[in-house]
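User: Sorry, what's this?
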Amino acid sequence: MDRTSNLLDEALGLDDQASPSPISSGRVALVEDCVETSGAFVLHHLIKHSLSPHYSSALVIFVAFAQPFSHYDRILRKMGCNLVVQRDNKRFIFFDMLMLECPDGDGGNISRDGLLELYGKIQKTMEECALTGDKRTCMTIMIDDISLMEVATNGSSNHVLDFLHYCHTLTAQFGCSVVALNHVDIYSSTEGPPLILQMEYLADVIIKAEPLATGLATDVHGQLTVLSKGISSGGESSRNKMHNFHFKVKENSVEYFYPGSRS
């Protein structure tokens, strides 16, 4: 196997076939991107990994504020994953927030009660798996994306943070993981502590998709930085680990390689 094409897997520990989780169980991952460099391909990669036939008991709960189901299905089909089949098999639970009607909202915005209702549906899905004896080896909540969730709540970062904290409680209750995408450049002109800083504090893993510092290149679309925070347990602690590499998005895959490895 060409190891240079799987640097993201290595950075996240996905090269360990013993674990189906894109992020270690009970942990939170934050994918940060910007207008110049989209990080959506990271979510697509994690969906495909979680729904691999090798992990037949994994479950993905996807909360979509950015795109409809057809968008993700079209992209994942190119990657060899049929989301329609996975949805029918109840391995891929899709919440389309673009189509959600929230009568308590204002002008189509989602109220605090709307987010609480969404959280209740996610919690109920996990509880039903537990009550029916459906012991999933891994359950992952994915959110695309946090910045649009904030827009949907009429700019209430407090409602968004409350929702994320509620989802965080599920990591302890069910051992699930949470993966969320956010656009960091929209906060550059805001005053006071931005939402992104509080999310970075909550996250155990931060994946940053950024443009090249040297500018545009035909064979390199951007760079990824993966920071895994150290874990303290039983009097022992592990140090933070950081990985940095370049990437190129192709039609049905993404190629990863170290800086300077290409002419």
In short: Residues 1-5, 101-107, 232-237 have pLDDT under 50 and may be disordered. The longest strand covers residues 241-249. Helices lie at 7-12, 40-50, 69-78, 83-88, 112-131, 146-152, 157-174, 195-202.
